[in-house]
Amino acid sequence: MNEPYFREAEERFCELLKAYLPYEDAYQELYKTEVNNLPLYGYGVKGFTLSMIEAIMNITNNKGDLKLVEGALAIGREILGKPVELLEDVESTLKSLNGDYRLVMATKGDLLDQERKLLKSGLAKYFHHIEIMSNKNKEDFQKLINHLDCAPEEFMMVGNSLKSDILPVLQIGGNAVYVPYHITWEHEKIDHHITHDHFHQVETIKEILPFLKSQSYLTKETLK
User: Fold this and answer.
1) Which chain positions lie within coiled-coil regions (predicted)?
2) CA 23 to chain CA mean position, Å
3) High-pLDDT (> 70) share of the chain, %
4) What is the pLDDT of residues 116-168, one digit of tens each?
5) What's the rounded mean pLDDT across residues 69-73?
6) Does residue 70 form part of some domain?
7) For residue 30, is it within any domain?
8) Which residues contact 67 (CB under 8 A, 6 or more apart)?
9) Domain C-terminal end among 37, 52, 80
């Protein structure tokens, strides 16, 4: 889970700019720049780093010391070098599901960064297919299930983002299970509750096992 690393990086960025702006103002400038740049750079560490540099230029009116840019680059490199720490019970759950279901990893972000994290995680061996998307919207998920020759009602997405993992899958007629995480990027939050027959929430990933057994409409050919 990368979210704690990004939150730590944002704090370091704000500390870097403390001579120019208060913490909250520096954070808001960085966040605004990131969101504006998503159509250009997509998601991931590289886009985040470029956004930090652009935010520095905006905050300092292009007059900031180059050491600020060096600092932003150092923050980005440090994220890329961070270890991949698996959430509790993730691997044991994948082991239990493997063989009974076709398991697919659907993630978004920079290709090289996602491939690096997957390699470090040691989880690739559990997946039938790995899909690295530039974004996660209903069109992306529709392409995925078309590629896998899977009916929407036989597809189940398990994720921790209501905006990117859950809503798009429900929109195409799939099933979605939300596993909350205590840190969520502002851009991934939604301002309404989800009420849907195919939406479910569990507190931990290991609860997926008894949940799947209770769903008679999901067969062993179902994607997760």
Assistant:
1) none
2) 25
3) 95
4) 999 999 999 999 999 999 889 999 999 999 999 999 999 999 999 999 999 99
5) 97
6) yes
7) yes
8) none
9) 80
